[in-house]
From TrEMBL:
The protein's name: CbiX/SirB N-terminal domain-containing protein
An annotated GO BP: cobalamin biosynthetic process
InterPro entries, per the entry: CbiX-like, Sirohydro_Cobaltochel/CbiX
GO molecular function, one term: metal ion binding
Top-rank taxon, per record: Archaea
Keywords for the protein's UniProt record, in alphabetical order: Cobalamin biosynthesis, Cobalt, Lyase, Metal-binding
Coiled-coil annotated residue ranges, if any: none
Lineage, highest ranks first: Archaea, Methanobacteriati, Methanobacteriota, Stenosarchaea group, Halobacteria
Organism: Haloarchaeobius litoreus
Amino acid sequence: MQALVIVAHGSHLNPESSAPTYAHADTIRESGAFDEVREAFWKEEPSFRDALRTVESEEVFVVPLFISEGYFTEEVIPRELRLDDWEAGLWDSDGTSASQATLHADDVDKTIHYCGPVGTHDAMSDVIVKRAETVTGDPDVGEGFGLAVVGHGTERNENSAKAIEYHADRIRSMGRFDEVQALYMDEEPEVDDVTDYFESEDVVVVPLFVADGYHTQEDIPEDMGLTDDYREGWETPAEVDGHRIWYAGAVGTEEFMADVILERAAEAGADVSAALERVREATGGVPASGD
């Protein structure tokens, strides 16, 4: 038997924070890829601490639904799962290349394949493009459009910006959009000045966040000038300084994210090739990069 455990941050304050995790878990559960599929959270129940005790399978694939490598993926999650032999060097990553590490959880006597975060997987570039297609309603969106990939950014974790730049570079290399720019909330270049960074009249803005919440539904719309008060909502597209801004909301809410989770598990050795096809069919996912 093999199990999948999706671990995410969750929130005590925002009940919608965990919604994408449950939705993607349901999609994967329906695909029949695993004997068991579980969700676990840092700020909600069920907790990381109990996650491995809830599965019967001897082999468990743990996929963090986080955007970047860092404190949570390298310290909090392994500690709470009691992966005693874990050390960050096992991923042998430059900050965006974590794949997986196989460990043994002695207290529950299970083999654990601890995967890198979904946010740095190559397939996330496809999800960002898919998000742009969804918000514009155009499966061929690209020509005549600019694309802004937006992250939180923080000097406390340099990997936060690395993930954003990594996907902006990959999508730029596809040659699909006229312009591609990485922007941030808390460091330069800032999303507040989004129209300064594009010549294209139409700009799609995709926040690289797992769930919609305070940042994606309040801060970013107001910072970009989509609205003076988030509570009054905004138009899509919205006119800002002579540009049409197509604001997508959190990329993690895109159905195609379930594909990235399965890709992570597949790299760690899970036999999910048939399920991948079923998930792509269910979510309308077609890799934009042609991979």
